[in-house]
Amino acid sequence: MKYLVAFSLLILFTISSCNTHESKTLFRQLPSQTTGITFNNTIVETDSFNIITEEYIFNGGGVAVGDFDNNGLSDLFFTGNQVSNKLYLNSGNFKFTDVSASANIEAENKWNTAVAVVDINADGWLDIYVCSAMQSPLEKKANLLFINKGINDKGELKFEERAKEYGIADTGNAMGVTFFDYDKDGYLDLYIVNNEEAHNQPNTYRKKIEDGTAISNDRLYHNNGDGSFTDQTLAAGIRYEGYGLSVAISDLNYDGWPDIYVTNDYLTNDLLYINNQDGTFTNDIKNHIKHQSKFSMGSDISDFNNDGYLDIVTLDMLGETNERMKTNIAGNNYMNYLFNERFGFEYQYSRNMLQLSNGPEIPFSEIGMLAGMSKTDWSWSPLFADIDNDGNRDLLITNGFPRDITDMDFGEFRLEMSQFLNEAKMLDSIPIVKVANYAYKNNADLTFDNVSEDWGLKIPSFSNGAAFVDLDNDGDLDYVVNNINDEAFVFENTIQNSNSIQLKLKGPKNNSLGVGAKIKVSLTNGDFQFYEHHLTRGYMSSVDPKIHFGLGASAKVKAITVLWPDGNLQEVVDLNEDALVEINYANAKASQDVALGFPFMKESSKKLFNEIGDSLGIKYVHQEYDIIDYSIQRTLPHKLSQNGPSIVAGDINGDGLQDFIVGSSSRYSPMIFEQQGNGIFTNRPLFEEIADKMREEEDLVLFDLDNDGDLDLYLVGGSYEFSGDLSRYNDQLYLNDGNGNFNLSTNKSPLVTSNGSVAVAADFNNDGYQDLFVGGRTPAGKFPLSDNSYLLQNQNGNLVDVTQSLLPEIENLGMITDAVWTDVDKDGLLDLIVVGELTEITLFRNTNDGFVKQEIPDFKGLYGWWESIVVADFDNDGDDDLVVGNVGRNNFFQPTKEKPVHLIAKDFDANGSIDPVLFTYLLNKEGDYKSYPANFWGDLSKQSPLFRSKFNFYKDFAKVSRENLFTAKEVEGAIELTGNYDRSVYIENLGDFKFKINELPIEAQFAPINDMLTGDFDSDGFKDILMVGNDYGNEIFIGRLDALNGLFLKGDGKGNFKTVSAEMSGFLASGDAKNITTIKTSNNEDIILVTQNKGRLLIFK
């Protein structure tokens, strides 16, 4: 139900810009001669004050937007570091007047950083809060509150500085600030981001400071409502240290109370303070965010994909070009992972993060690499805003740093020469990072296109704070940027004939700007946009208080619904697009929760799946020692010791009830779970002796070897940790005594010694006995060599190796990961389909005399990181179709046929160890893509001294490509593999060995798909798919591939699939999920079991 409320609307039609000069780009940079804005955040280094002595010298300043003189036009405020602040009043037509000196806001001799706009005294005139930092004594770092006194009798705008009187002249090293009403008492409170002043070893692991005693602890001031504030930092639970750089406010868990997201530089983790609704907060980031930016800078929160959930972007400093990456990163150290665990730090990686919300009870999915915006160099301010008015919020990013202190060559030079050179000479040796800002157009499919040049932002600069604002009231957003050592950028948006609507909130007396209000714009086509109103956005800045919605070419607004912070609700209809609509709180009415609905409240639905492990008496948690595969091969792209646990189901003890076995890691036993008549499970280990536990099972198969009516057990040996004892890779066969007790067989199967990955049972020759295919992956320490795979024929209860006679083409096929038996051509004979890492999908046709590799044109040349495969008739045409799980699109390489990944491997230094070297296409400084080493020089050097001896400097290594890293002689006899396809796919069987490949929905591309289960889970008569995945063992530069939370794909019986979110379905497997299977309970209900590496066994009903 919706409430239609009577209200008064003030509709001010937008004023067209008088500037009619045609622009070739969306943004047109306006010179200071036109605007009158000459602000330049000039920073001059000296021998005693420079980037070496003060690491945060170039963190820059912010921009604030507000109609400070109440003339209906947005004015601009810039904070200065070594220069004074500036206030420019908007006269219209992009003409501004500098009133800084007369307005008394310059704050000379102060190092000013962040800025926030607020009407703190509810007098109708916007006030300005400015943060100060860097200087001594302490009083020089006191923050400032400029109270707007309005226009005096001389026509001058005047401010008075009164932070001390209000009790908010905080003297921390402030880098961020925001006003918000955290206790919902109607008064805006103050959060200040403070940054550690002493930077001694900021990346050294140590015990976290979580008691509020760190000098970098942030501050929370409560507004008492009487013109004073009280420091409630510790009482409110704001107790975590951090090198803070930005803060963003939003109700991220949809409980109606504002939460706090703080970005922290260096080792200290970002913070997500969840509002406890009682005046206190709890930092609960580990349960919401799986990994974070390491050097987190600016941030923004917005619903960029228009699904009603608020998403988070944080910025870091990973270079876009090969040269920038290779000169700024030495290599990787797995000890960071171990120290994370030891000291309780969350995982962090150096790149931009785009955290996609999946709903308040589901962890975010970090999809920055898939989205295409993870590498923007030394970046500061991210802002989501609909720049082209197409109805989708785009992303603007500022970056640049006058002296690149992270340059590896400079680091080594400084270490060697600092005792011989003075500061001036040292400073001259530091590279400059003057690069252009970025503009990303939202494609409305979770991806962005880099349109920096097309939109006119391709201007090298040292840019920091920024704000979007409609300076000329023409219905589109202009863009203003605070630059170091250059005049500020003022970009006019030149888009023509666009469709938009803007809102001006007139809030309650003590929150006149409506901070914290939630707004839903409903369109006549059934779509909607959602927005939560906060002014502190990006980095050190405050954006236009007017709220802007682009609508696209043809969309029409049906209604605007506003939920005010106190719960009052207002709905507006009969609107004019391309208008400024004022919505007055005075016309709002009290709401009832039932009337709100999504996205104002949590989306409610009856879940299809519910986790029931506790009710079945199952509390199993997989355990595994952390094996460091990278100690064996430094340049491995991912671990090979972290693939389990596997799981298999069947009636083990012959009581008519289905049981299951969960595989183990080395030093632990597989666990047998036996179902009782009441549906409860008991468990026992398969092994008791320590010697039996030293192997690791990559797969388990229950099958009746000898047709005696019970299920025997085949264990596939694998992992990557047994290079010294290859016998631990031997597969094992255990015979069932009919009561669920297994005894090792020594004479009914051949010796299978490969590092295996999969085993699948089927009667391929129709003799009534179950046969086995066993896939081999790669020998320990010899990645990417392929290990042996086996076809084991069951001859009257004995497994016989018939690989060479019946399946000879499997040899050297590649690193097998999964396989499936299916009768592809419906001839009554089971064919074999095999997938693997950096292989094609390979089909072996059963000729009844053996297996031959069937050439499939659609599979030819598609080399993927295939992880899993299932078959079923998804389109109801009578034959089996395929679904194949791949690494997914959310990866660093972004491979295509035109820009593939290459892997070259050989024992280059003849020391007995294979040296794998990955190459991927990266942008060079000339703007072209070229195949460069994916590994960093430090990692290659530790893999083989050959690579250390080839170069003297990181800048030299940054120039080398696949064409010239090796000599022709060096690559003689090397293994060369290709990867050019990363998508998980549905493959329709068209008959006659013809197939059609279709990409699965984008949610299935978030992470590696490790296993799948098919079935009609929603009882609509059509087959669906449940997917599990992630890879926590991925190499440590990019880190954990963890964006999947499990996935339910609903089938329509025609080969199409629709994503059902975990929030709606209830199917949630957010860890390092490895395998999935199903069994029937004693009351004939299906339950679903999901294994997770180092995680709990999940059971869904």
Structure description:
With 1101 residues, the protein is mainly beta. The chain is globular.
N/C terminus separation? 33 Å
- Helix/strand structural class: mainly beta
Overall mean confidence score, pLDDT: 93
Poorly predicted regions: 1-21
The percent of residues in helical segments reads under 10%
Largest sheet: 5 strands, antiparallel
Trace the largest sheet across and list its strands.
36-35-40-41-43
Taken as a percent bin, the fraction of beta residues is 25-35%
Radius of gyration: 31 Å
DSSP strand tally:
75
Number of helices: 14
Q: Write down the overall geometry.
A: globular
Concise overview:
This protein is mainly beta and 1101 residues long. Strand 32 and strand 33 form a beta hairpin. The radius of gyration is 31 Å and the shape is globular.
